[in-house]
Q: What sequence folds into this?
């Protein structure tokens, strides 16, 4: 299948150019943007549901939802109090043109913070720049402590790592030391936020980090 | 990006031809082959570890592991008693040529059953025929009851659905009725095997199904 590579490279280059345009547009509007990536079911939408109410006193929030089917996630983000737009991705990842569509659909002048929820996938989103300022991986402990070893490109490329569902730790054979060693080997010193969207434990540090980054713009 | 579609279609057609060759080869050797697909961390490897010892008295088993990095899963399958081969996928899914490589590396005449463990991904593997006789999705309850609604192509295309980690149900807000309704709407009457690789609950029906299918060859 080597004959596909030139096409893919051309698309990736075009993608990166549009990502740079997205970034410029965000910066010109004084916006801070996060790209949330994760396996299906790690809790990206739950994290957005939890975070929006805690941030919305200080910031006006827009959410761009990348979903293959349904508007379930966009509806949940909207219910939590964010301006929300649904991109029906029909793809295994978001790309910069899709995010541009999302930005077109939001009233950027009325916002401070944009959260992009990528398609649930621990492989493909890693290769696609969107123009967001920070890339965040939401891991969840039921996925197992071997995931950094098995999906290195995703763990390597992110600025922050949320470790979700820590309320389930007592019922799992999850070795946090092994997990953290795998993460550190790939991404030394990466910010980590162990938390539970179920109980709310650990959310505060995560919220403070976003608030600080958003406040700088 | 519509310009990529002709290339992708050509590759898919070539893939399907090789899948047909894989199937023929399996049939000629009297082998039954399963394609296990799932999100990262749903428990594909744990299911193989649990299943191999329970099946190996009756059948000789080969495992083809599709991993992006490491031989962790192949090592676990080998330790459980299967002949095992690792395909370093460098891709978000397995395709038929990769499975052909795996078949080349196994001594097919000495085997009865082949289990192919796909790359952990709830999107991309759905589009790629491998030549296996049955396609199985391993869902896990911590992923949430909305997954059939959000990843319909994967749920639509499978012959059987394992619902793993049911030992965690008491600690989750997982609505089994909602989940099953979503599954039924996409894939009416699909075989389902709720089970726990942790406690062993529910494994028997799953093992009996594989044994029955393998025995028919």
A:
């Amino acid at each position: 299948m080597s004959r596909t590579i030139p096409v893919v490279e051309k698309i990736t280059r075009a993608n990166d150019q549009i990502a740079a345009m997205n970034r410029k547009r965000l910066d010109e509007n004084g916006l801070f943007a996060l790209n949330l990536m994760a396996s299906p079911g790690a809790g990206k939408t739950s994290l957005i549901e939890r975070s929006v109410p805690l941030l919305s006193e200080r910031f006006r929030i827009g959410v761009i939802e990348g979903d293959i089917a349904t508007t379930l996630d966009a509806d949940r983000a909207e219910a939590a109090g964010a301006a929300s737009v649904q991109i029906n991705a029909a793809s295994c990842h978001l790309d910069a043109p899709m995010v541009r569509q999302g930005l077109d659909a939001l009233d950027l002048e009325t916002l401070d913070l944009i959260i992009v929820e990528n398609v649930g996938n621990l492989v493909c989103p890693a290769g696609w720049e969107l123009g967001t300022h920070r890339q965040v991986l939401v891991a969840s402990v039921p996925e197992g402590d071997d995931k950094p070893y098995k999906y290195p490109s995703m763990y390597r490329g992110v600025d922050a790592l949320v470790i979700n569902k820590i309320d389930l730790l007592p019922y799992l054979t999850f070795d946090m030391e092994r997990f953290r060693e795998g993460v550190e080997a790939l991404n030394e010193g990466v910010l980590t936020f162990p938390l539970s969207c179920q109980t709310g434990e650990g959310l505060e540090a995560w919220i403070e980090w976003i608030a600080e980054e958003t406040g700088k713009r």
Chain B is about 40% helix and 20% strand. The beta strands of chain B are 32-38, 61-67, 83-88, 113-117, 134-140, 160-164, 191-194. Chain B has one domain: 2-215. Helices of chain B lie at 5-28, 44-55, 72-79, 96-105, 147-150, 152-156, 176-186, 203-215.
